Inverse folding.
């Protein structure tokens, strides 16, 4: 079944990879939302629409999200405030499915091999944790994804659930895209959950 997906952060490395992966492996249609639509390369005009806008602009964000089946967000910066704006826009527009990229370590879930990457030792993760907490407190059908360090490798990954130790250091962008595609196709998959994703034995 074809879905319409809003990709927020479409010009970032994860946004671009997810867009390319969906074009190659699904029939989904995409609204590609970024600050500068000129930086968005359209491969298939019948399935891709570029929209320029700022997450903090209510009208622009609502226009990008309205009518979509799912929202995928891969952003950097003040994630807490951006998550708040996205949740509010989805409430206004009636869109329920949110897939949001956060970071490993926000629950201090990285074992001893990488414990210095946990929030306890890395205050830069505070806004990532605040964003996740905000999303988890919403009434959306959300999935928070906590990836390892990005690589350009093939699709090869394992998933850990919230409360479980994180599995490994790295994960390929294509692996994240594959999980995102499955989450779009099945709104019940890892709904109301926060999942880690990593390459096995990385």
């Amino acid at each position: 079944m074809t879905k319409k997906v809003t990709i927020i952060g479409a010009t970032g490395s994860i946004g671009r990879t997810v867009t390319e992966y969906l074009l190659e492996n699904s029939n989904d249609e995409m609204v590609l939302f970024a600050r500068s639509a000129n930086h968005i390369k359209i491969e298939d005009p019948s399935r891709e629409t570029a929209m320029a806008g700022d997450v903090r602009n209510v009208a622009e964000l609502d226009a990008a999200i309205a009518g979509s089946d799912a929202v995928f967000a891969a952003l950097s910066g003040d994630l807490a405030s951006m998550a708040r704006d996205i949740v509010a826009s989805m409430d206004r527009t009636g869109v329920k499915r949110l897939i949001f990229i956060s970071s490993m370590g926000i629950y201090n879930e990285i074992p001893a091999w990488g414990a210095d990457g946990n929030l306890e030792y890395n205050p830069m993760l505070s806004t990532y944790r605040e964003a996740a907490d905000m999303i988890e407190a919403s009434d959306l059908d959300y999935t928070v994804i906590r990836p390892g360090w990005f690589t350009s490798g093939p699709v090869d990954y394992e998933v850990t659930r919230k409360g479980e130790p994180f599995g490994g250091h790295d994960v390929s962008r294509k692996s994240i895209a594959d999980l995102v595609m499955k989450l779009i196709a099945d709104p019940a998959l890892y709904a109301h959950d926060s999942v880690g994703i990593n390459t096995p034995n990385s």
Remarks:
- The chain has one domain: 4-198.
- The longest helix spans residues 79-93.
